[in-house]
Design brief:
The complex is a heterodimer of chains A (about 300) and B (about 250). Chain A has about 300 residues and is α+β, with helices and mostly antiparallel strands. In chain A, about 25% of the residues lie in helices and about 30% in strands. Chain A has seven helices and 17 strands. Chain A has a five-stranded mixed beta barrel. Chain A has a four-stranded mixed sheet with strand order 1-6-7-3, with no helix packed on it. A four-stranded antiparallel sheet of chain A has the order 14-17-16-15. In chain A, strand 6 and strand 7 form a beta hairpin. Chain A is flat, with a radius of gyration of 23 Å. Chain B has about 250 residues and is of the alpha+beta class. Chain B is built from four helices and nine strands, in the order E-E-E-E-H-E-H-E-E-H-E-E-H. The chains are: A alpha+beta (about 300), B alpha+beta (about 250). Chains A and B meet through helix 7 of A and strand 3 and helix 4 of B. Chain A: Belongs to the RRP4 family. Chain A: Keywords: Exosome, Nucleus, RNA-binding, rRNA processing.
Chain lengths: ~300, ~250
């Protein structure tokens, strides 16, 4: 058996930093004095001691009028209302699901915050509570929106739109939440026919396009009608995924890994660029090589820079 | 009063350091991708890995509404000492070390911010050459910073011992394994140097009160020196990983 094996010494590890044309800002580290308390208010990442505002995390300072915040380079997901998240069901409880969303407390999805077959305004009956596990069970992946934030900081989610809900077939990648760029839209269909959900919480979902968005959005009525017929049929989301789709998903996953290794912000533009640049490498598995990863990230950054210059 | 010969006639120690010198510290943040934060730290030949998970939802049995639960686990690799030995995780020594780690780190973490949450800190000693506890605290601090956990200040730890030069006591900073094994006192201090507070103080053997002040101030000085080194490493790490939030849209 002969395969391609590449072994590098620890001292010759690839440096993944991509020279982006940005100047280094002023950094603050824990315990460092940011400013006097007199003129400013303390925000996240800061605390007050001896009439001084001090930083409690390592990162950059942001000032909004009189409010001083220090943002760490990476941290757990801090939810905001309206964010699109991807999460995994941990537990089915009375009238609600517990969802893992990379937040510091588990998120809650209430039974009243999901679309049930039979229309928006249906009363949730005891039978619905019994049948909760048929809608979502432990280990399922969902996409959802942050509806509100409880006083203890945990998130309340809702899936009351047809674009949210259970995710059937595809791949999930976890990245740092701070690498996801905030955009108007986090649901995308890439030119290669893959639908991508860039969750604000750093969970990225990729799946074949057909079942997820198009069919549902185009004929709402038809789907809700069919949901009525075979209510809670747990196999309705399954279909054969073609080989080309599988390869595209795998390539996309490797592109994301390359961008993350070089700490580049992820949005649909960078994803498409990286995906296109990655065709320099014919086989998907070649992208796992650290040099190839750096190359893809570098080419992507280069294309971004040329767009920025124009 | 004569103790073991820890200082040569030139005033150098067994490994050639001056009494107030630290061993070389090298460190790196973000060595793993799976945990929320991680760090590797070398202090001379003592090598330590630390990983931090959380803050995440606390287990029901541990849940506290006052603040975050800090959960530490200290373990030593089989090959970490000269004598190869399998150390089960729950043995007395590592249990005690875990408790001490928790004390030092929960003094630094702003625990009141995250009720109902839990932070897990795992420390693995890869090579023990004296001062494993200090290296663990320093590495865990770096891992916590990497994870973006709010801290009051850096938590640094350092040891110091005492040697005799004629009848003069001379405090030795950052005790190595050879000096530790030679007997004599060993004072371990975990402190938050920038706010001048002590999180943990431990001493092996007995020391006359008259000499305590010298040993203590030397250990505190060591903590301050270590803080400067850690701060530099954190700033380098930030500069390396910084990406400007971009503004382009299509």
């Amino acid at each position: 058996m002969s395969g391609h094996v590449s072994i590098t010494l620890a001292s010759e590890r690839v440096n993944h930093s991509v020279a982006a044309n940005n100047e280094i800002p002023r950094f603050f580290t824990p315990g460092e004095v940011v400013c006097d308390l007199h003129d400013f208010m303390r925000g996240h990442g800061t605390y007050v001691e001896d009439d001084k505002i001090k930083s409690s995390v390592a990162g950059v300072m942001q000032r909004v009028n009189k409010l001083i915040c220090v943002h760490p380079l990476k941290s757990r997901y801090v939810g905001e209302i309206g964010d699109v998240v991807v999460g995994r069901v941990l537990e089915v409880q009375q009238k609600r699901w517990r969802i893992e969303t990379n937040s510091r407390l588990d998120s809650i999805l209430m039974l009243s915050a999901v679309n049930l077959p039979g229309g928006e305004l249906r009363r949730r009956s005891a039978e619905d509570e019994m049948a909760m596990r048929q809608i979502l069970e432990e280990g399922d992946l969902i996409s959802a929106e942050v509806q509100s934030i409880y006083s203890d900081g945990s998130l309340a989610l809702h899936t009351r739109s047809l674009k949210y809900g259970k995710l059937w077939q595809g791949v999930m990648v976890k990245v740092f939440p701070s690498l996801i760029a905030r955009r108007k839209n986090h649901f995308h269909i890439l030119p290669c026919g893959i639908s991508v959900i860039l969750g604000n919480n750093g969970f990225i979902w990729m799946g074949p396009q057909a079942q997820n968005l198009v069919s549902r959005e185009k004929d709402d009525n038809l789907v809700s009608a069919s949901e009525n017929e075979d209510n809670y049929d747990c196999y309705k989301g399954l279909q054969t995924v073609t080989r080309s789709n599988r390869e595209a998903i795998a390539r996309l996953k490797n592109c994301i890994a390359a961008l993350v290794a070089s700490k580049m912000m992820l949005d649909v533009t960078t994803l498409i660029f990286a995906y296109e640049e990655s065709f320099k490498y014919e086989e998907v598995k070649e992208l796992l090589d650290p040099e190839a990863m750096l190359d893809v990230a570098f080419l992507t950054q280069h294309r971004l820079n040329t767009i920025m210059d124009e | 009063m004569p103790g073991p010969e820890l200082l040569s006639s030139q005033g150098l120690r067994l490994d050639g350091r001056r009494p107030d010198e630290l061993r070389r510290i090298r460190c790196k943040l973000g060595v793993f991708t799976q945990p929320d934060g991680s760090a590797y730290l070398e202090q001379g030949n003592t090598k330590v890995l630390a990983a931090v998970y959380g803050p995440h939802q606390a287990a029901k049995s541990k849940l506290s509404t006052e603040g975050v639960v800090v959960n530490c686990q200290y373990s030593m690799a089989t090959f970490s000492t000269s004598e190869r030995k399998n150390r089960p995780r729950g043995d007395r020594k590592s249990q005690e070390m875990s408790l001490h780690l928790r004390q030092a780190l929960s003094a630094a973490i702003k625990t009141e911010l995250y009720p109902r949450s839990q932070i897990d800190i795992y420390v693995e000693v890869l090579q023990a050459d004296g001062g494993a506890y200090c290296a663990s605290v320093n590495a865990a601090t770096l891992a916590l910073i990497d994870a973006g956990v709010p801290l009051k200040a850096y938590a640094c730890a350092c040891t110091s011992s005492v040697a005799w030069r004629g009848n003069h006591p001379e405090a030795l900073l950052d005790v190595g394994h050879v000096e530790e094994a030679a007997g004599g006192v060993c004072l371990t201090v975990a402190a938050l140097p920038s706010v001048d507070s002590i999180a943990l103080l431990e001493m092996s053997h007995r020391l006359h009160m008259d000499y305590f002040e010298v040993v203590m101030s030397r250990a505190m000085q060591g903590c301050k020196d270590i803080e400067i080194i850690l701060d530099k490493a954190v700033r380098e790490h930030l500069a390396e990983g910084w990406t400007k939030p971009d503004v382009i849209t299509i």
